[in-house]
Amino acid sequence: MEQKMQEFLAKYEIAPCEHIETVLDTSTTCLVVRGCVGSGKTQLFLSRLAYLLESEAAQKEQMLNLVVDASSARMMKQAYRERYGCEKTPNFVDIFSFAYRIVSFYDEKNQNTRKVFSNMQKAADKILRAQFKLICSNVEIERLLQKVYQCKLRLLNEKRIAEIKMDNIDFAAFYNAYEKFKKQKKIYDKADVLQEALHILMYDKEMLELYQQRFAYITIDDAQELSYAAQMLIRILQAHQAKLCAFVNPQVSCDLTYDADATIFDAWKDDYEDYKEVVLTTTHRLNSTLCELTNRFIPSTMTTASTEECEIKYKGFSEWKKMYDYALKRVEEKEEVAFLYREDAIAIPLIEHLVSNQIAVNFQWNIKSFLNDSIVKDMVNFLSLFINPRNMRAFFEVHKYMGLDMSNRMLLEIDGIMSDQPQMDIYQSIIASSYKASGKRLLSSYMEDIREVSGGTTFDMLQFVLEKFAYDANMRKERRTIQDPVWIALQILAAKYPDPREFLEVLRGLINISSSEHADVYVLPLRAAYGRQYSCVCMIDCFAHIYPKFKGNAYEGAFERRLFYMGMSRAVHHLELFTAKNCFGTRLEMSPYIYELHGKRKEASKPKAVSSRLREQDFKRGVRIEHASLGKGTIKRVKDGMMEVVFAEENKMLNIKLCIKNKLVKLV
């Protein structure tokens, strides 16, 4: 080992470890470090950068240090300073931010301006509705945009794009409409930025020479998350002059949105004469139990340096309240706990529950997106109307769901009647207005139930809207179901806060809940846990419609599997996987990954047969049933062996024992 390297290791008390000499060697043109989860790749990455600066092989301005995202850039900067001090802290940047700098510099030179949007879901939805007369779910739109980004980041030509097939839509036509929409609005998405940066360097020799001369060393952490276009951009910059070092773990390559491609590194050995590769197969993070579990889920030769064992817990909860109460208990027992989720809405009741119990939580959430969701806004307006039947603003927003088709002129007339007659509410004003007779009759058929539910609980109100006004049908039109995470979150909060006024106050107060950055309790989206580790990890939404979320083909399936693997492998000592059997009568299926990990094969799902084995205690408020002659309904209340059930046409009081004995009902 050369003298400078020995002095560096001694100065920072770095114990010689596997392949440290190769990683610190500054003479190799191309080095690929393949490592498993917890194998020390990040420490080697930072050590290489520190050694380049310490040995004066490069100034920090000559180094391009790429990480997976902006959050990782901040984390790396902090980790570097803690380990090597602040005197020569290198810069860290993600590939999209770096590409944006290239494009911005080019635009500044040429007096251009561009607006870049990271989320194009609303734009895609608008195009689908306006030009294709299609209503798609958020998942379908997300998948469609992924396909668009893949076309850009794989640099596909028009012929290849025209060959792409998707169910229920002409993909090539949508792609062209999407591009035309952006051109008209003068906006760009993130994939455009990367593609444009590559185009600039390919065709602007002055820009290319400027960037090639600037960077002497290019070092990439989590290089498996780079797309083909990103890797082409790096290859152009490197051009066999800069020293290239990439740290790769293909098992956690899980960026499906921006088309991660870890296979390209396999070709580097043929492209570079001075190519070296080292492999790290020992994990210093996972204990023996977790190592065996993850190796079984995605076959690997990974071994562990730990002899520690632990119990993997598969927690299936009969009620959501029990799930969150258990999470509270887990927090009290463990020093560090991370609750990881994929769907933002599922985490909202958990964060509220922990904070309301005086637990400091380090969290990331897009609460504005939740509060602006159409389901949330509709339910807030319905509850506001039930609480105050003179709330014209709320009525204006939801009257269409009540089957009351009203023009703006009619709404103004009703508002005017209320202004002149302060003792009258909206419903009385409608009856007194010139509104059509059929509409008045429909309203009259609702009135007794509306008056009754107005004095009920929050949960009663939500169920009333779902059943009486057939709001679930509206959800289906929007390609959403009662398994939607947003609807589940609302029901959980409604069950916790039965007073509708308090419920609305809690919803409004969510925006004011602050994250505690130094707390040891984390509630984070799965992607935010990338590159991190926690003593105890609880994955809280292990349901079949969430894992796997995309089931289109083997390519998507492989990404889904790696994403779940990434979540499990954040744990150091303890792992728990949460599911729930139902949500207030709505049956939920657990993820097939849970069956696989638990060593049990999933049975083919069968319709639940009508059976005398049903028990009286199975029939509770909120449970959905199907009656042999009355159809599907929801139990509103249970008392003295009788249950009141809300069916589509009417409410019925049914004797529970007789229904079971005569096999008239089944749970749905």
TrEMBL record:
Pfam families: UvrD-helicase, UvrD_C. The keyword Isomerase applies. ATP binds at G35, C36, V37, G38, S39, G40, K41, T42. One of its GO terms (molecular function) is ATP hydrolysis activity. Residues 14-287 form the UvrD-like helicase ATP-binding domain. Keywords: ATP-binding, DNA-binding, Helicase, Hydrolase, Isomerase, Nucleotide-binding. The keyword Isomerase applies. InterPro entries: DExx_box_DNA_helicase_dom_sf, DNA_helicase_UvrD-like_C, DNA_helicase_UvrD/REP, P-loop_NTPase, UvrD-like_ATP-bd. GO terms for biological process: recombinational repair. Its EC number is 5.6.2.4. It catalyses: ATP + H2O = ADP + phosphate + H(+); Couples ATP hydrolysis with the unwinding of duplex DNA by translocating in the 3'-5' direction. Belongs to the helicase family. UvrD subfamily. This is DNA 3'-5' helicase. It comes from Amedibacillus dolichus.
